[in-house]
């Protein structure tokens, strides 16, 4: 599927994380994280980070599976890494007083739960590099995707994903 998308380097990083997740031992937690990651990938493919508005803040959290929210609540390291990939690009450079420090505070808090998994710690570190020198994640390009979000439609501005059914809840295909 060829389409104009946003944030190509960020999408590539999410694909690499997806490949890491799907290469592990199958579990319901991994499947849930896989679905949330596919939704995040679709979100960043459709949303420009140039135009910052409240839709950037509320769209992905509004469509993520309830099971994923439970994993975050349980401080699941994989769920925290995925959430960091959302948190840093959304809050870095926002300039809004309410979001000051979220781009560094959330990853720092998540890092305390990565003590036993060096691979996840590396993904967490990579997620915090958004917008730094040499990390040009804000350009528009044509991009060929490998993630399984073909049936996930990110709502357009003004639509409520909780009211209208925009997402496919089907699990990611087996690798």
Structural class label:
mainly alpha
User: What fraction, in percent, of the residue positions are helical?
Assistant: 40-55%
What would you call the shape?
globular
The quaternary organization reads as: single chain
Mean pLDDT: 73
Tell me the span between the first and last alpha carbons. Answer: 19 Å
CA-atom Rg in angstroms: 15 Å
Largest sheet: 2 strands, antiparallel
Structural domains: how many: 1
Name the helix and strand elements from N-terminus to C-terminus, one letter apiece.
Answer: EHHHHHHHE
By DSSP, the count of extended strands is 2
Number of helices: 7
Strand composition percent: 5-15%
What is the topology, as strand order, of the major beta sheet?
1-2
Low-confidence stretches: 134-171
Question: Please, could you describe this protein's structure?
Answer:
The structure is a single chain. This protein is 50% helix and 6% strand. It has helices spanning 8-22, 28-46, 54-63, 66-73, 77-91, 102-111, 118-127, and strands spanning 2-6, 140-144. The protein has one domain. With 175 residues, the protein is mainly alpha-helical. One of its GO terms (molecular function) is DNA-binding transcription activator activity, RNA polymerase II-specific.
Keywords:
6% strand; globular; two-stranded antiparallel ribbon; single chain; 175 residues; 7 helices; mainly alpha
How does the SSE layout of this entry go?
Layout: E1 2-6, H1 8-22, H2 28-46, H3 54-63, H4 66-73, H5 77-91, H6 102-111, H7 118-127, E2 140-144
Antiparallel strand pairs: 1-2
